[in-house]
Amino acid sequence: MASPSPSPSPNIEAIRASYAGFRDRDIEGILSGMHPDVEWVHPEGMAKYGLGGTKLGHAGIKEFLAHVPTVLGGMKLAPEEFIEQGDRVVVFGTREVTSRSGRTVTLDFVHSWTMRDGRATRMEDIFDTVAFHELIES
User: Fold this and answer.
1) Strands (E), 34-103
2) What is the helix (H) or strand (E) element at residue 13, kind and residue range?
3) Residue in 51, 19, 41 with CA at minimum distance from that of residue 32
4) Sign of torsion, CA 7 8 14 15?
5) Could you report the per-residue pLDDT of 113-131, keeping only the tens digit for each?
6) Partners of residue 38 on adjacent β-strands
7) 92 burial level (CB within 10 Å; 0-12, 13-18, 19+)
């Protein structure tokens, strides 16, 4: 008889809740797993489109998410692998991104989450900015 798989940790559960918020287009769901003072970090290489740098707190994330539709036509995240070590959870996945002109591509991502008390204090989005630029400009 196979042993039951261990249940996910509170950290992974909180992050999964945030991804469910993305899937459901539910801002409060996205923020549910994040501390009020969370740092939301994207590559500086995306600054040209207003998508780079660090956004602070729930208000910063809401402002960032409100800006995304001015640059992109849509995005769906598919987190695939969660690796936890101490207060860090690293998520490998893909995102289906649609440009404002309607072109869709699938791009890899790595999200590095730093956790405290079961909620994220930092999320760093790591991806190929060149491929993202090409899509945005297509």
Assistant:
1) 34-42, 53-56, 72-85, 88-99
2) helix 10-24
3) 19
4) negative
5) 999 999 999 999 999 999 9
6) none
7) middle
